Amino acid sequence: MFNTLILGAGSIGSAFSIPCLDCKHKVTIVGTHFDYKLINIIKNNNNFHPFLKLKLPKKINILNHSDLNKKIMNKSDLVILAITSQGIEWAADQLKNFVTGKYLPPILMLTKGLSIYKNKYESLADKLERLLIIKGFKSINISVFGGPCLAMGLGNKVHTSIIISNKKIKNAIWLKNILSTNYLHISISDDRIGVEVCAAIKNVYSIIIGASKGLCNEKIHNNLKTNNYLNTAASLIKQSLHEMFLLMNFFKGKKESVYGLAGLGDLYVSASGGRNSKIGSYLGNNLKYSTAKKLKMPNETIEGAELIFELGHKIKKDFNVKQFPLLFAIINAILYDKKIIINWNNFK
Length: 348
Hints:
Blueprint: E1 2-7, H1 11-22, E2 25-30, H2 36-44, E3 48-49, E4 54-55, E5 61-63, H3 70-74, E6 78-81, H4 88-98, E7 107-109, E8 114-117, E9 120-123, H5 124-134, E10 142-146, H6 151-155, E11 160-165, H7 169-179, E12 184-189, H8 192-210, H9 212-215, H10 222-228, H11 230-251, H12 255-258, H13 261-272, H14 275-284, H15 289-296, H16 303-318, H17 325-335
């Protein structure tokens, strides 16, 4: 039997266990050190996941971080990382602590993001690879995941299309073969950096698109905004794609990734609903980010905002505001806690 280990018990990691189980994998979910309360809630409520609003199948083995051991890790044929971007170091430590020898099982990262290392941009897959090399591992095989995949939808087996990318296309093909179901449809790519950049940066643009109702015309009544904001949203979507294309050129990814599942597809879903667009709606109604986060979404991780806190200062040094009016507008709103101000004249 194929053994799959999922590190992270949050929404997307737990949802991904469903197609793994349907592909006849033996699935183990291990929560991070932040998931103790969540794991206990799931176990004490007949495997009901409070974020997904569904019961996880009894066949899935759900464990706390303290239960992870070498036997579980070394029996794994695939390790899926479903952690926050801040958890990359933790994941590298778990692999070092529990993998026997210098060879790792293949890794699929559901985690999306970018970081800075030695004043250079670094994808999270590259960051993990660098950390694992430092820890002495050989032949590291890391794939990344992107695309329009809301966890609750996947958990309920709605038709979902994603893209899996690896520098070696044969590794992506292998994952497609072992993870595809009649509802999870997988495309493949060798553009790992492109898929990861799209998957990360679309969260930022989802915030600004989420603000479109408030930004459409500040002088009209909210009822009129509700019925007439789509023109503005469309303008923001078009400019978002243009800026994502410029970023793709900078990171030397493929333009196809911008217009594919990891870019346009994921942007559509994220802008239509989710945490990033939700915080954007508050910003569009003139709430400062700090206030909106504290009062409206105190316990939720806003991936786009986390990316801005990580990269915002460097982006402002490295890029031109005239080329990136949306990116700079949302950086100023979040990093400096200001009102969103867009220079529409710089749109392309």
